[in-house]
Amino acid sequence: MNRRLITAALPYVNNIPHLGNIIQSLSGDVFARFCRNRGYDTLYICGVDEYGTATETKALEEKTEPRALCDHYYGEHTKIYEWFHINFDKFGRTSNEQCTEITQALFNDLDKAGLIHEHVNKQLFCPHCNMFLADRYVDGTCPKCGYEKARGDQCDKCGSLLDPIELKEPRCHTCGSTPEVRETKHLYIDLPAMSDKLNAWMDKASVEGRWSDNAINMTKAWIRDGLQERAITRDLKWGIPVPKAGYENKVFYVWFNAPIGYLSITKQLADELVKAGKQSFDWKSWWLPSESEEAKGKEKVDLFQFIGKDNIPFHTVVFPCTMLGSPHDWTKLHHMSSTEFLNYEDGKFSKSLGIGVFGSDAIESGIPADAWRFYIFYNRPEKQDYQFTWKDFMEKLNGELIGNLGNLVNRTLLFVTKYYDGKIPDAPVDEELWKQVRELEAKATESLEWADLKDAFHTMFEISDICNKKFQATEPWKARTENPAVAESLIHNLCYVIKDLMIMMNPYMPQYTQKIMSYFGKSIQESKVGMETKPGYTWADLGVTEGLSTVGPTEVYFKPMDQKTMLAFREKFGGKQNKDAAKGEGKKEKKADKKKMEPLVLPLDQQADFFNKNIELTVAKIVDVKPNPEGEKLYIETLDDGSGTPRTIQSGLRMYLKESDLLGKHVIIAANLAPRTMRGVESRGMLLAGDYKDADGKDCVEVLDASWAAPGTKVVLEGADVNAAKKEQITGDEFFAVQIAAKDGVVQIAGKKLLADGKEIKTVNAVNSEIG
């Protein structure tokens, strides 16, 4: 069994993490707990990312020093992750001396190899503060949408990535003065020189490590479009010094040294264990096994990394290139588990506006940590963004965690204590039941081996559901007197299934599962580097139907949530406490939006290129249609989009089409349109259709049809690459920037036909119509 080195994306130190931020650390924890229990030699490393512009800016805002700021927030992060029972082997900091040592050593390796180049570029300089201004030290007006509070790196209104010198009316974020453009020199890593090495490594690693299509396509897009030299220095004070003459007043760019934090935190752990007199290890045995005596004779190391989708290129291109450019044989990415975004209600998390649940809020909510862990993994956003809503939280908590799993555990164990004096009845193995259970256990185990955490979790709940149905069908409350052997067999076998479920669910809900096992007088094994292993059941005990004898007094662990409580939480975390602050600015912006933010249609000669780079159309099959009870015009459609995960969208077609007109139809959807909640239901995409009038002049709608194409088929313009990577998510304005229209029955953009599986998309009735 190969050793497993696990890392989770390093959270920025300068804020309190919200539920969406915590997903990566929690995901790494679930996988690490599984690996340890399964018998793998496992190391789980994470920590806070402390250097960079964001920290310097935050320190200025809070009128403190960066080190003091980091000390404070490191404590806050630590407290939150401990409350969530995230069992890191080490949760460290990138501001440690080991990070400086290893970062500078890697830089020197690249410099000696001729992979570091100096370039002079233009940058804004504040004469008043007497310093060059990094991206986030500049505010100004966005040159693309006119938003007056754009930042130097990005406009929060239109989402455009910016260069500070592009801003109109730029202002120094610190003093408000107008900066001037000056020349400054920086060091760049020569990524193009490593393109061949990167490509060869990626081709092998992506197959052996089963990378997701998303990671492969994004990485190939970077390589296909031509790698660019990338700056690795910044004009800042808070950071790792650059060990090169002429660069004494500069530091390394945070995205050069942040991933090196995985290495340095590992070394930090090893050094701390030595100081504490505990059994230590050679950090190189994990990251440089070919140079470590300790690693000789041990299995190879597989590196599993848990990150958000926005960090993929840094982990598949920039960081690997740093390693490939070094003469040392570093451990590199084996498998990546990336997630989409978790959003909040009908918008995004915002600490400043009091919108959303942050780690400190979860602690204060009174809801157990394992209930939060359950919800996050039951809905882990693996294929598409997911919207946290309190209504959904209540329904999943009450329906699945309590109504399914909790119901099985509580009524089975209570039956033992109430009717069998706490002694589990002796009975033969129910081979029919265990055949189903073991097949699903094997399926869940295989999913976990490749960090498919959501699929594995759902499979476990499938086992619970099967057992609940068997309990109900057997009616042990009757069988106990009418056919005692039947009741005894049911309860005996269900106790062992519950034991198995607790072992498998322990990585997800460690506190709850240990509590349930304590009713049997048992526990589940727990381990961690530098700590004494707590004995107990392991993965090898799955399917074993002996060893349990009694059930002690039990209690209900999770309490259901009622409508009143749910609404109170939604009000509390909905930003109401900041409504006065939001009203004044929000109303102004909304009024301005109505005037300025009407969808803009691009010039005809730009539309095809914009579509090819940004808009993703996909064929999907409608597998279910039902009216939205809260919206008289809306249908809720469930789609098979070829991803393996059902997709829900809404369309305003109830006035025009019957449910039977849509069910089973292969339609075309805008697949990367940002999710939108309408009448309480989130819609993940938009169905394309054209309008026309019938012979009586009645308004009608025709849905675009692609009956010949399988779900998941990409719809492209003639001549375009069907495998081209598209933007992860687009706004409604971006979608409508392109005019899709049927002309003489052929659907096209700027004169180019839309094709699905090589065949033209045509209309029957809406022969000359705008498509939307």
UniProtKB/TrEMBL annotation:
It catalyses: tRNA(Met) + L-methionine + ATP = L-methionyl-tRNA(Met) + AMP + diphosphate. A motif ('HIGH' region) lies at residues 11-21. PROSITE patterns: AA_TRNA_LIGASE_I, TRBD. Zn(2+) binds at residues 142, 145, 155, 158. Its main location: cytoplasm. Residues 575-595 are annotated as: Disordered. Its cofactor is Zn(2+). This is Methionine--tRNA ligase. GO terms for cellular component: aminoacyl-tRNA synthetase multienzyme complex; cytosol. HAMAP family: Met_tRNA_synth_type1 (MF_00098). It comes from the Bacteria. The gene is metG. Its EC number is 6.1.1.10. Belongs to the class-I aminoacyl-tRNA synthetase family. MetG type 1 subfamily. A motif ('KMSKS' region) lies at residues 348-352. Binds 1 zinc ion per subunit.
